[in-house]
């Protein structure tokens, strides 16, 4: 399913324009092609029911630099997947599978970089807004930098613990979107992170004459990349409200 087909499918399933726009934020479609039906509905509602009620305006999220960097870096994963599709003939060449494994590694690398950059941005924001104790600011920053050196694989526990430690925020509470709840998101991230670790440290390259299951199928990889995009977007929205 192409990115456009995915958006059309969301529309057919009854998702709101804001949810479709969220999908577009991860690169599924240009923003300018998405109509704001919610605004039209509000105008119709105010005409039909002329009550003295103030329409609640959604606060426009200001995306972090970390999010902008993620949108760019995740393209490494999607382009590797596209390249796999382009050479995946019948029968596929023996070296095609390495593209899928590399794509998953790059997708997790993009997530890891986003978490590191996003928490650094948040720390800088807090330090900038508090000039009372320079020594405390310095300790806070140096401690975070030290912990980030050993952050590595972005598993659920690692992400949760570092945000709790420095901001007293359970960022996993914001991991909710569409039909995904917090527990499902946490479980799925751990599965993807483990699969990435197995590929990176055990290679899982098929041996000649020894057929074995693919480390990650094409369908699984596409779902993993989309999951990571949704996870980052949910994290971005949550932190925008909390910090």
Automatic annotation (TrEMBL):
Residues 75-239 form the RiboL-PSP-HEPN domain. Pfam families: HEPN_RiboL-PSP (PF18735). It comes from the Bacteria. This is RiboL-PSP-HEPN domain-containing protein. It comes from Tolumonas osonensis.
């Amino acid at each position: 399913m192409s990115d456009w087909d995915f958006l059309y499918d969301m529309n057919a399933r009854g998702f709101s324009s804001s949810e479709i726009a969220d999908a577009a934020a991860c690169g599924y479609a240009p923003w300018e092609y998405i109509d704001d039906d919610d605004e039209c509905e509000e105008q119709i509602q105010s005409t039909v029911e002329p009550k003295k009620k103030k329409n609640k305006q959604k606060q426009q999220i200001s995306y972090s630099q970390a999010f902008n960097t993620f949108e760019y870096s995740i393209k490494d994963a999607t382009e590797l997947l596209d390249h796999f599709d382009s050479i995946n003939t019948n029968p596929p060449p023996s070296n095609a599978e390495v593209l899928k494994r590399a794509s998953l590694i790059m997708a997790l690398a993009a997530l890891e970089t986003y978490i590191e950059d996003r928490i650094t941005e948040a720390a800088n924001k807090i330090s900038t807004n508090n000039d009372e104790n320079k020594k405390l600011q310095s300790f806070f920053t140096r401690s975070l930098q030290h912990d980030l050196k050993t952050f590595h694989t972005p598993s659920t526990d690692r992400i949760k613990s570092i945000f709790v430690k420095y901001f007293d925020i359970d960022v996993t509470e914001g991991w909710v979107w569409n039909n995904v709840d917090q527990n499902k998101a946490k479980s799925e991230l751990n599965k993807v992170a483990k699969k990435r670790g197995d590929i990176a440290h055990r290679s899982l390259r098929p041996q000649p004459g020894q057929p074995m299951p693919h480390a990650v199928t094409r369908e699984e990889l596409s779902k993993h990349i989309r999951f990571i995009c949704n996870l980052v977007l949910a994290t971005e929205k949550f932190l925008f409200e909390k910090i």
